[in-house]
Amino acid sequence: MIPTVYSNLTNDQLIELSIQNGEGELASNGALTVNTGEKTGRSPKDRFIVKDAITETAVDWSVVNQPFTTQDFDKLWHDACQSLEEHDIYETISQVATHPIHRLRVKVRCNLAWHALFCNTLFLKLNEKSEDYDWILVNASHFKFDGATYNLPRSVAIILDFTQRKILVCGTLYAGEMKKAMFSVLNFIYPEKSILPMHCAANRTEEGNIALFFGLSGTGKTTLSADYERQLIGDDEHGWSDDGVFNFEGGCYAKCIHLSAKNEPLIWAALRHGTVLENVVLDSVTKIPDFSDSSLTENTRAAYPLQFIPNHAVDLIHPQPENVIFLTCDLYGVLPLVSILNEEQVIYYFLSGYTALVGSTEVGQGTGIKPTFSQCFGAPFFSRHPKVYAKLLVEKLKKTGAKVYLVNTGWHKGAYGEGGERFSISTTRQIISTIVNNTFRNVPLREIKPFGLFIPTHIPGIDSDFLDPQKSWKNQEAYAQKAQLLINEFAQNYHTKGFNKV
Fold it and tell me: Is 221 a catalytic residue?
């Protein structure tokens, strides 16, 4: 049978074909539910950048940004595309970034209808009909290969070629690789345009009060940015230019392990026909999703269009932000619930990117919770040196006067697994509300040791023991030990990565 090429199908058509092809099934809420097989998260150890004249001196080569030769890439691209052509192909042309000048058009060619649906959902619909594109992304999901043949460590590859403007994904069905590959492209391109690419969520008031939420997966940026009282701009990827903030995406990609209508009402309501659920277990009879079931992975995901959030923002570019929030999930229970950062601390915490790994966003993380440091709150996606992005951030803050806050969405009263408790979502939402409504700016502050952070002395409706982490611990000696342990880990990470060098 001669393979068929399907171009620019509607989402309904792609859903129907996904079911016909046996790629997935409909849940009781109408969402298309799929299983990504062995790879239920990103594969950062299999991500490469072609090293050539464009990237050789611009990329911060490391275990995160691994080099790949043009010769090996061309060979792998040829063979992967040959495999692609042996099966039905789904093509879409979309754009990334809402900025009318600095947007990119990407053509996606893949063998799974639900992958095309995912790209239709996470990327942006073109306003005009065009066959032109700036980048091409090929996802050859049926391509089985021996990594050693192409000088790869495994039979998985996510490779970016900035000269040929090509992206190749093969050896994994996890759709998040496609979205993050395009994010990585913008992260490389934008700094030269004085645009800060950010791994953050963003929301606003109708009047234009903008807040940014930086944080790794599991810290709460998707949940906290979805707010009935504010318009959602986006949940994950944004740019900060001289003319304002803009979204990179047309949809959201929310973790949904333990999702509930009570704690995440807007996200819960978005899970309907047109949404893709990854690795969510369904009841075999009723097809009702069991969001507490982590038997496939803790990294269960929901991809849905931004317009599924009722109060989403519609402007292409939004005003300059007033408040920037660094979300950190502290499993040691020693960081304050909220503190305001000075310029030196902004750089330190931005380059550190401290949080806890909650769930398995990346393959190989396993289960449970453990501390991590991920510079710029998204190390796997930033190809230039972290200080490039930190410098841009400080420049934007100075120009706009935006304030930066560190918010702990993790533990207090003790460490994780040692008697501590995680802050409730209601407490965190109350703190976020105080910040984004600018009432925090009128609250008296005081410095706490040993972190040198400035915390509020009082916030109406918030237990004062929550504000000062030391007060919430019964064992003061244990608090001091954990606090010093975290300080030492910060210092070691900073030194190891060379951030303390001029």
Answer: yes
